[in-house]
Design brief:
This protein has 17 helices and six strands. By secondary structure, the chain is an alpha/beta fold. Strands 1, 2, 3, 4, 5 and 6 form a six-stranded mixed β-sheet that branches. Strand 2 and strand 3 form a beta hairpin. It comes from Fulvitalea axinellae. Keywords: Plasmid. InterPro entries: Tnp_DDE_dom (IPR025668), Transpos_IS5-like (IPR047710), Transposase_InsH_N (IPR008490). This is Transposase.
Length: 498
């Protein structure tokens, strides 16, 4: 028999027996106590003005909120709500005591992204890495004497590089859908300009045929069997409507004596609409399927199609990234919206120079990459910088035993680092949301991407700190056992001698 109860326990029943004290073993408490907040705050405060504007929010509060947002993979508003409801998160972001007020308005996230570029987040990641090295200094040396260092010493001068795409959260673009969206936006601009033009003396509002154009678009999308010629005809019709509306907009502006009374948002959209009409008209006239600087979204014109050739997604729409991994920490060395060749000598030189800036006391020894990084120009660039390329070799297989053994060692090193790079991309895309960037501006999107890699490096930093604590406790426990055994042996020796 199942017993049900409609009564609800009082809220006191859910509190910890030790009321008024947070659990020191909570993950957010432990993470907050390990992060070098002062050093990270210097990077954030360097973007603030000292003599203008109102006082900014504390650096720990802002950086901590960014970490909470991306670590939990939630929206800006949801991150603020999580902080408002959770005392552990409030402790993490540096609040003095529990409060039911919002830490700050969610719109501040966008302002912070405008200020912090991906170079700033790289600096924060470098600070984490060097702080981890400082904490572990001496302990790892003892571990290496006892044979517990593994491959850590060999990996210090090795960097692994790879490229990926961070897709934007936009509808999958088609020429017909893009033209239909552009047409709707042109109709909105006409509606905004018409009252001003009417007051200037224009007697009749221009016709847009919006109902007819919408019916044609919906009918085309619902048709089951569509050929290439069918798409071209439908796209041409939508393009004709768009070009007609753009001519009407020009006439409305002329009626207002050339003054464009539009907000900056619609003024930017108007410029995008003209470029979309030009590109689509060029492709329809020439029969081409591509055009330089192709726009695929009206509201995010900076997004470009990136052909990747991956299984399941031949083309991705977002920023192309070149990432380097050093000792488990990932750095965004290049981020660009237009497609580029990641094996170019200039990109390779950027990886090497960025490594030198982050590690001035260390010289890069080996560069690990796939075949695209192993072209002759890239190898010459690495050789000129005194860096050895670890990847698919050129030429015939060697015959001498020493060369064969060296190639096997390089293959093992290459496989180990390549696996880490692919694993890092899987972690940030599936776990931290790199496969769905929700920012709309070009600069805030890159900041969003860089913050994801920073949070990933924070997880690496936390795991290193945890390893050092475990190692120290193991080392101390072993020393105690050895001391007890020595004392016991001394006692027995005294008994036997007496």
């Amino acid at each position: 028999m199942i017993k049900t109860s409609s009564s609800q326990l009082s809220i006191e029943g859910f509190l910890d027996p030790e009321i008024g004290r947070l659990n020191p073993e909570n993950r957010w408490v432990k993470l907050a106590n390990s992060i070098p907040w002062a050093e990270l705050g210097l990077v954030y405060e360097s973007k603030m003005s000292t003599g203008k504007g109102s006082p900014c929010k504390p650096a720990r509060l802002v950086i901590g909120a960014l970490i909470v947002k991306h670590k939990l993979n939630v929206s800006d508003a949801e991150a603020i709500e999580q902080i408002k409801e959770n005392p552990y998160l409030q402790y993490f972001v540096g609040l003095g005591s529990f409060t039911t007020e919002k830490a700050f308005d969610p719109s501040l996230f966008t302002t912070v992204r405008k200020r912090l570029g991906y170079g700033d987040f790289n600096r924060m990641s470098s600070l984490l890495q060097h702080e981890g090295i400082r904490i572990a200094e001496g302990d790892r040396d003892e571990g290496s004497k006892d044979g517990h260092s593994g491959d850590a010493e060999d990996d210090k001068r090795v960097v692994s590089c790879d490229a990926t795409v961070a897709p934007q959260e936009i509808p999958y673009p088609t020429d017909l859908g893009l033209l239909a969206t552009a047409r709707v936006q042109s109709e909105k601009i006409i509606d905004l300009l018409w009252p001003v033009a009417r007051d200037s003396g224009l007697s009749k509002k221009p016709r847009t045929y919006r109902d007819k154009a919408h019916r044609e678009y919906v009918g085309a999308t619902r048709k089951k069997r569509k050929g290439a010629e069918f798409w071209r005809v439908c796209a041409r019709r939508q393009l004709n409507y768009l070009e007609r509306n753009l001519r009407h907009i020009d006439s409305l502006i002329e009626a207002n004596k050339g003054v464009i009374r539009l907000k900056s948002r619609f003024l930017k959209i108007l410029m995008v609409l003209h470029e979309i009409a030009r590109q689509q008209s060029l492709m329809l006239e020439t029969g081409a399927n591509r055009v330089d600087g192709r726009i695929v979204n009206v509201f995010q014109p900076h997004v470009r199609p990136i052909v990747r050739g991956k299984n399941g997604s031949d083309t991705e729409f977002g920023a192309k990234l070149s990432v380097s991994l050093h000792e488990g920490y990932s750095y965004l060395d290049k981020a660009q919206w237009d497609a580029y060749y990641e094996g170019d000598a200039e990109v390779i030189r950027g990886h090497i120079d960025n490594f030198g800036e982050r590690n001035p006391e260390m010289k890069l020894g080996k560069f690990v990459g796939d075949k695209i990084y192993g072209n002759r120009n890239a190898r010459q660039t690495m050789s000129g910088a005194g860096v050895e390329f670890v990847g698919s070799p050129l030429g015939r297989p060697p015959s001498s035993p020493e060369k064969i053994r060296e190639r096997k060692e390089n293959r093992a090193l290459h496989q180990r680092h390549r696996s880490r790079a692919e694993g890092k991309f899987g972690e940030v895309k599936r776990g931290l949301g790199l496969d769905k960037i929700q920012a709309r501006r070009a600069d805030t999107s890159l900041s969003w991407i860089a913050c994801i890699f920073f949070v990933s490096n924070l997880k690496r930093f936390q795991s290193e700190i945890f390893f050092d604590l475990v190692f120290l406790s193991w080392k101390y426990g072993t020393w105690l056992q050895d001391s007890e055994k020595k004392q016991e042996k001394t006692v027995w020796q005294n008994i036997l001698a007496g």
